[in-house]
Specification:
about 325 residues, mainly alpha, Rossmann fold, Tyrosyl-Transfer RNA Synthetase, 2 domains, three-stranded parallel sheet, two-stranded parallel ribbon, globular, binds tryptophanyl-5'AMP
């Protein structure tokens, strides 16, 4: 089993990232057997699709590295690195540009969302972003890729690219990766709008809970979260058509390792005036130790850089045979 996943180091780690992906990364790392290996990386090469100044970008990578370690990624057991330190990602992405089709990329909903109405003004990087993502995954022969629901389409594209490359060149260079998507928390929604996903790019900070939020900020955000006037139903079925209530119950269920049905049974007939403080408490208790660890880790840039350097050396060594095989399959002599 080869587990691999990435996160863009832009903005803070938020609850959507944590419950949708990172918690699963940590679980898979902790349950790994001797034959398995986990690779987790900061997609800083992907983050060039958002303009950022030099200093801020350097800070962002260290912030996200600290956030992942604080969330439970252990750099001694998992390979933790940033893409820019491993040039094989950019190299393989270029090779795969010969395989990926414009029509495939045109169908990517994330590109459509991010480019918005001004497609002509979007960067080429934003358009070919999923090809770099395929390279990230295929370089390591990843078998399992733990992600949130929004990355499913990119995973399917990675499989299509791998299949076409293998077929076109008559080789078996790439392994087809399978997405691992959590059942309950695959899509954590904004606290201000139950139909929009919780995201780093939402202009309102009230829409998300960040790993770095203090206890009182978390409580305030939960108390101000949009809800409806109805009490909680007896079963999760009664949440139909109530996106904000569905989201908050889902978050509670995930955090307490329970199910939406069990949470509804616990709070049946109660209003959000009773439910929100309980949810706030649960969030505070879960996030506080992670935040404290993050603050501690963030005081030592050199230690974080050393973790990423060490991870990058291991990643580069693991990537090399596949990169070499891809060049060779294409008749490109290095
Ligand atoms: P990114 O940085 O947007 O998000 C990191 C992970 O968090 C998940 N996620 C969510 N899950 C549930 N609810 C939400 N509201 C929510 N918001 C984010 C994402 O699904 C993701 O798993 N393109 C990727 C990074 C990437 C990658 C890769 C991932 C680059 N190369 C290779 C896997 C494999 C991205 O931008 O994720």
């Amino acid at each position: 089993m080869r587990v691999l996943s990435g996160i863009q180091p832009t903005g803070n780690l938020h609850l959507g990232n944590y419950l949708g992906a990172i918690r699963n990364w940590v679980r898979m790392q902790d349950e790994m057997d001797a034959d398995s290996q986990c690779f987790f990386f900061l997609a800083d090469m992907h983050s060039i699709t958002v303009h950022e100044g030099r200093e801020q970008r350097i800070r962002n990578v260290r912030d996200m590295a600290a956030a992942l370690v604080a969330s439970g990624i252990d750099p001694d057991r998992s390979v933790l690195f940033n893409q820019a330190r491993v040039p094989a990602h950019a190299e393989l992405a270029w090779l795969l540009n010969g395989t990926a089709r414009i029509g495939w990329l045109n169908r990517m909903t994330q590109f459509k969302d991010k480019a918005g109405k001004d497609r002509e003004g979007a960067s080429v990087g934003l358009f070919v972003y999923p090809v770099l993502q395929a390279a990230d995954i295929l370089l390591y022969q990843a078998t399992h890729v733990p992600v949130g629901e929004d990355q499913k389409q990119h995973l399917e594209l990675s499989r299509d690219i791998a299949t076409k490359f293998n077929t076109d060149f008559g080789v078996d260079v790439f392994t087809l990766p399978a997405p691992i998507i959590p059942k309950e928390s695959a899509r954590i929604m904004s606290l201000r709008d139950g139909t929009a996903k919780m995201s780093k790019s939402d202009p309102s900070d009230m829409s998300r809970i960040n790993l770095t939020d203090e206890d009182d900020a978390i409580m305030t955000k939960v108390k101000k979260a949009k809800t409806d006037p109805e009490p909680l139903p007896e079963t999760a079925e009664g949440l139909a058509g109530r996106p904000e209530a569905t989201n908050l119950v889902g978050i509670y269920a995930t955090l307490s390792n329970s199910t939406p049905d069990a949470v509804c049974a616990q709070f049946a007939g109660k209003g959000f005036g009773a439910f929100k403080p309980a949810l706030g408490e649960l969030l505070v208790e879960t996030l506080r130790p992670m935040r404290e660890r993050f603050v501690e880790l963030r005081t030592d840039d050199a230690a974080l850089d050393a973790i990423l350097d060490k991870g990058a050396a291991k990643a580069a060594a693991a990537a090399e045979p596949t990169l070499r095989a891809a060049y060779d399959a294409m008749g490109l002599m290095r």
